[in-house]
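Chapter review. Work through the record for Lipoprotein before attempting the end-of-chapter questions.
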Amino acid sequence: MASIRALSLIVAAALATSACALFPRGDATVRTAAMPGQLEPIHAAAITRDLAVFWVSSNGCTDKDDLTPIIDRAGDGSTITLRRIDEDTCDRPMADGVEIIWSFEELGLPPGSRVQVNNPYQLPPSI
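Structure tokens for Lipoprotein:
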């Protein structure tokens, strides 16, 4: 649990110092109307040169297909908003949640793009 909190602080610091320019295409969704699903609170997020990594809560059945990244461009920056499309109705809560990864290629982003994350942060529940 302490390692997730430490990672969350590191990721938050990294995100706070990044600015972003994205060019959505491929599997990512470009927002043109109301966003689908529900805004997903995240435990942590990390953006590397070519990966977007999120840690989210799970009742034991959450996988990548249950979530969708929405890419929103404004000026010279872009934002990823992670949305939950399918509810996790399992009853095996995972204390640390699950890690979900999208490559920049999947998101239609060139390597090294700067990305901001628009999701609220939430510490993992105590189980």
